[in-house]
């Protein structure tokens, strides 16, 4: 039972087949082929407006180039204390921005608290250049702990950004998982709430490596071709990304895959909630589960063949996790089977 | 007749099939899967020694990270005047090294002249820090104009590097094409001549996006995991690169593909040499041809359906290219057909 | 009564006169003059060992280049939550290191708590490159809130650094002020406790702009000439810094100036402690005072002509500062007069 | 006889005295004092328009921050082949711009040839991002070989910049020396010809370390406070730079000092022109002389006590300098005496 990460999965057959279908013949390179253009057009449809789209190879690249694109001298970007950009990207955002800083903001359940954001922003006054200047806010949807910002929560944060004249970036490494939970349109989850730039992830949801940087105001993306090329993210045979997105976005495949993953997580959560030996750290809103349990219980799970990451205990859980308890992270994916869910559930309840 | 670039081609069926074969099932991420390890081991065999291998997504990434890995404060890397690193990577090497400089070195036929390298190095004296300090020499094999360094030429340049205490990097975007022309082993073309770091390219020769950074002294590569991750080049589902290399390096496929491309170029060169209306700028030693011809002849080729790049006239050709003449670049690839070669040859000779 | 900052003061007459004395005649440039060499030698004497010294123009430069000199890819430097490097240098350390990160560490009284440092360091494991890698710890002596690390506290932190194989840097913008309080030798406050690199500040204590970067192991500073020049910190007429340090370090002037400033602060602290309307946030151990008082009292001080900064309330004071109270920062300097201290004390007690 | 460099000189007494005059008393820090403001105002008068002025510590800082301020992703700045920015700043411009490139342009007498600039710019087309994008042209006035751009030459280059939509920067490390030769106003030598940004140097002409970054369109300089602070170039006691400029710009002192230096160079040139053993590489138009002579003659000069730099033979002199000949560089300064000039002239002619 592999629940280590959704990036341990392979790719969906429809995507693999489309890649094979486009593997022969000649096509112009560096993002100029007919397929590239057609998939870019597809993003316009999905977001119900003209957007500027740039394919890149990793989520770290998408996030880092998004911040590089809106960077300012002495720039400071604000993210949640547990965000992937600050915890898991080995300093890539700082590296690509030439040293701009990520300032963490507190908030429960992996979500930035608007009041805390306001408080942090107060330290940066135009007459006090020593602190640097705010240049962006970045939120993660779904968050690093699998929770989801409601549209109005996004809108509130976007409002603060507008006040301060800085753009709002959304790290959508698990964009589809959030979308199907909310049941809103891509437009409603992004620009209609005030999101300016989006990292649109496909890799964790059934692609090989397909990430897109989406600017809702194409005017603001004029330097992106240079920013992407300079960062070694302009692939020559770009149709290999375009072909993945082509299949991914066809006939709602992307939404179906995310629904499948989320559904499995929901069912696994139900088992956890019935157990006396573990409890959920946060509500399960996408495809991640964070059970808290005694180390002995975690050992039992491992012995039963469950693979998962042990999670560092974040600040807002310090009081809720007892000594000798651990926090586990389990992630489902598009290919998780009903059998795995059942086997997991039985295993959990067998301990009760 | 597509001769615009070898990166306009797709992928070889054996590679595409291997990718499909590895697309299902779970595998540990970020370069730790069994397949990753197995392909890394394959590099040891190919190079007849233990090497450190890092897969990345683009040739620009491989070159830039190679230089970042050997960088020094105020660093200066030396490359040929027409090298890809300085002409076609949008400043990526400078960006990834935090501002180290590429100093161009002259030399005919796309190859760095050892005397010119020595001359340039003389400007950099330990007691004159204002100039910066040399940190690497980088050569391209095959070169940007399709020529090839003989092993003893590489050895001569490596000797200069050793004297100065700086490493020698080889940009092997077309490594296989050079190798089959020389008919030597990978080891003989690299570390046995004194090459320290290699960008091993697969993309132009039949892969989707498969590039590897190879360090012949693994001790020197200890920080590479951080260098690669920080540069957003650590893919999560790395098996998609490993699977490409797995098929590429199996049963000499890579050498067969390169041989096929080179052979086509050789045959096309023969037609050009028979024509009275065009002549070759440099000898054809791999899969690139650079015919010089009157603009009217170039127009005739285009009208006949030949697709190619018009090439900026480099310094050493200034006296050899008349006004109203142009330099064209034609590139063959693994999938170029006999029919295309024949059609091209007929077209060329029809003008004679 | 100017207590805004010690950098509002001018320079001590002895330093000004020495500058004038060295203003005529020719001297070799870029740090190679006899005076430069002589002052460098003086640093060896002061620190009782051979050190490598590099003069720079600002404290921000000294700190940033210290970190740049010990930087590693994906590097993370640890500093106190309120440290100058992270709060007041506009991202210079991150900029000069090409994007390395400053990770803040908690601790009361402006001092890094060893246990907290250990806790933060735990997140960085060699097998988890996503977090980056520790590359330095930096402490401030005297701290940003005017307190002082005892030698054994420095030694404890240095011990943690040694365990992790990372260097310990000391930001000594107010080095002399700390030294005279402790009554130890420069060696005892630095390398004898395990400090590897020091920013030795003169500007705040009576110079115009005289800062030195001191490496206790000169072997580790070999690239510094390039690091400093590349950062635009190699002055041509370096004797203008050397002449300042020459006078500053002569006949213990630097210690006398620091003693004078500290003494004034101690006397002002006594007045504050007698007042019923204000109290000290932290003990006064160098030349800074942080009284907490009602806004109305602060207004009274201002009306009486006292100039000071209002200080953002740091985390460890949150519970100690009531609503409607503010934290003020007052800084004495080498030129603060007895009259000012008496006027201030009277003013404070007049409110009682 | 010290002719090694004008930065071997000290400071003019009027400047030294003004520094002493401003050394006592309190003044607000970080560029906000009354003296700072007054000197900034003086720049408006000198340039006959409102300008944005930023004091920095070195010429390298001024040039590098000027380029950082106008930087673009994948940016390429064009400078003369022998320019200080590319030859003598240890990569600082590339470092401060995060890896933008300096592309050298040929031209005789140390001056960029407009035709060559146009030719280089042609390689950069909006549809070919691989080459990067032009972001500035930078010229040096007086040039690195002591020659001077005529106003109409500046205007021609500025015209090319306007066509391409990129700013023109002038490195004015020897601004005053050029100005007095041309006999035009500061405005006529800069913005009236189309210069956008100026590095205004005082150090080589009688200051300790006084350099200013001048933006003729203050709107374009909005981020400069952050750019300067982040680069560690915001001094706390900025009045030490302001006081230097205050005296330097008072009663035309700066012009008088430059005239004195230039006059000495002119007289020394006359001696060289009368000698049979040496000749001038370029016409002497400011305070630098470049005699070409046999090595034996150079040895004779050295033996006679003349201190100078031997200069690397630049490309346009290759045919003019015989084997066994060397190029010397002699620089006069504000404090060069009549006696030195006479002694030098006699020495030169004694060899004839």
Could you characterize the architecture of this molecule?
The structure is a homotetramer of 352-residue chains. In chain A, helix 1 (13-21) packs across helix 11 and helix 12 packs parallel to helix 14 (338-350). The mean pLDDT of chain A is 96. By secondary structure, chain A is of the alpha/beta class. Chain A has helices at 13-21, 34-47, 59-69, 84-87, 92-96, 114-122, 151-164, 175-182, 186-189, 224-230, 239-248, 253-274, 295-303, 338-350; strands at 52-56, 75-80, 101-105, 133-140, 168-172, 197-201, 211-215, 279-280, 288-289, 291-294, 309-311, 325-331. Chain A has two domains: 13-251, Aspartate Aminotransferase, domain 2, CATH 3.40.640; 253-350, Aspartate Aminotransferase, domain 1. In chain A, 39% of the residues lie in helices and 16% in strands. In chain A, the strands form two sheets. A seven-stranded mixed beta sheet of chain A has the order 1-7-6-5-4-2-3, sandwiched between helices. In chain A, strands 8, 9, 10, 11 and 12 form a five-stranded antiparallel beta sheet that branches. Chains in contact: A-B, A-C, A-D, B-C, B-D, C-D. Chains A and B meet through helix 1, helix 3, helix 5 and helix 10 of A and helix 1, helix 3, helix 5 and helix 10 of B.
What labels would you give this structure?
352 residues; ArAA_b-elim_lyase/Thr_aldolase (chains A, B, C, D); Aspartate Aminotransferase, domain 1; homotetramer; Aspartate Aminotransferase, domain 2; alpha/beta; PyrdxlP-dep_Trfase_major (chains A, B, C, D); seven-stranded mixed β-sheet; lyase (chains A, B, C, D)
């Amino acid at each position: 039972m592999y629940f280590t990460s959704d990036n341990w999965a392979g790719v969906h057959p429809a995507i693999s087949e489309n890649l094979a279908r486009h593997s022969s013949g000649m096509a112009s390179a560096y993002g100029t082929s007919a397929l590239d253009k057609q998939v870019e057009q597809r993003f316009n449809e999905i977001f119900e407006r003209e957007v500027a789209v740039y394919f890149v190879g990793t989520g770290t690249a998408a996030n880092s180039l998004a911040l590089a694109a809106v960077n300012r001298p002495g720039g400071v970007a604000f993210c949640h204390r547990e965000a992937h950009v600050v915890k898991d990207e080995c300093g890539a955002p700082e590296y690509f921005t030439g040293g701009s800083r990520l300032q963490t903001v507190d908030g429960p359940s992996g979500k930035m608290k608007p009041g805390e954001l306001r408080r942090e922003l107060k330290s940066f006054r135009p007459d006090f250049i020593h602190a640097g200047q705010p240049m962006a806010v970045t939120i993660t949807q779904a968050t690093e702990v699998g929770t989801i910002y409601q549209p109005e929560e996004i809108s509130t944060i976007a409002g603060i950004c507008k006040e301060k004249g800085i753009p709002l970036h959304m790290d959508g490494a698990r964009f589809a998982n959030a979308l199907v939970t909310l049941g809103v349109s891509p437009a409603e989850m992004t620009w209609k709430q005030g999101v300016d730039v989006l990292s649109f992830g496909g890799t964790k949801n059934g692609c090989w490596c397909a990430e897109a940087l989406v600017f809702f105001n194409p005017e603001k993306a004029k330097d992106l071709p240079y920013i992407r090329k300079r960062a070694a993210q302009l692939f020559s045979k770009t149709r290999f990304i375009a072909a993945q997105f082509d299949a991914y976005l066809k006939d709602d495949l992307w939404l179906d895959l995310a629904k499948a993953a989320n559904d499995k997580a929901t069912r696994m959560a139900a088992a956890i909630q019935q157990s006396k030996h573990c409890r959920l750290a946060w509500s399960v809103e996408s495809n991640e589960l964070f059970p808290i349990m005694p180390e002995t219980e975690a050992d039992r799970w491992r012995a039963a063949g469950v693979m998962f990451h042990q999670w560092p205990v974040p600040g807002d859980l310090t009081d809720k996790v007892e000594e000798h308890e651990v926090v586990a992270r389990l992630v489902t994916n598009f290919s998780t089977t009903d059998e795995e869910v059942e086997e997991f559930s039985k295993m959990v309840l067998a301990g009760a």
